[in-house]
Specification:
By secondary structure, the protein is of the alpha+beta class. The chain contains 4 helices and 7 strands. It has 2 domains: 83 residues, Sandwich (Jelly Rolls), CATH 2.60.120.10; 99 residues, Four Helix Bundle (Hemerythrin (Met), subunit A) (Up-down Bundle). Strands 1, 2, 3, 4, 5, 6 and 7 form a 7-stranded antiparallel sheet that branches. A hairpin with a 2-residue loop joins strand 4 and strand 5. This is Cupin 2 conserved barrel domain protein.
């Protein structure tokens, strides 16, 4: 048993996470999304206005709302402020793992030049998603380590792309797959400890 913080991250796991927030009177959280998650807002104290996709919903103490994580949502506290919980029910972890599996499957088919183009496109899309989700909550040391892994992945890809017929190309692919597997494990642990 332990006492929880009055605000901040209360719990995070594969199923999602729970965050407790407190806003001062009239404070606003600008539009943001929670891609891949179902979002539940449970208001404990005060008043809170949620705005998403042109719709506006006002909550009073004891009320709750469900919204999609795909569209940006803005939150504004009422005149007495607001204390609330946000529950993010995770489809994110399933999405992240599915992306990891697909990327690893493509990587194993390298150095085929056609596969390389598809792999680089998929990796770029994954990097954008990673930056918007996984990297958001990382401490500086973990973020630096993951960025170093990105640099190693980029160097290996460049080597494979420049010399796909080199006798060592297959070994470079195997090294890339090994680095990706470790990086993806680190990502999943960082995002869903």
């Amino acid at each position: 048993m332990r006492k929880l913080k009055p605000s901040g991250l209360l719990w995070q796991g594969e199923a999602g996470k729970i965050v407790r927030k407190r806003l001062e009177p009239h404070a606003r959280i600008p539009p943001h999304d929670h891609r891949g998650a179902e979002v539940f807002v449970l208001l404990a104290e005060g008043r809170l206005v949620l705005e998403q996709g042109g719709a506006r919903l006002e909550l009073g103490a004891g009320e709750a709302a469900h919204l999609t994580g795909e569209a940006p949502v803005a939150l504004t506290a009422g005149p007495e402020g607001a204390a609330f919980w946000v529950v993010l029910a995770g489809r994110e972890v399933r999405r992240l793992r599915a992306e990891h599996r697909a990327l690893l499957e493509l990587a194993r088919k390298l150095p085929d030049p056609e596969v390389l183009v598809a792999f680089k496109d998929a990796l770029a899309a994954h990097s954008r998603y990673e930056e918007a989700t996984v990297f958001r909550g990382l401490d500086a040391a973990t973020r630096e380590l993951m960025e170093q892994e990105h640099a190693l992945i980029d160097r290996l890809l460049e080597r494979i792309e420049q010399r796909p017929n080199h006798p060592e190309a297959r070994a470079w692919v195997e090294q890339l797959v090994t680095v990706l597997e470790g990086h993806f494990r680190d990502e999943e642990r960082a995002a869903y400890p």
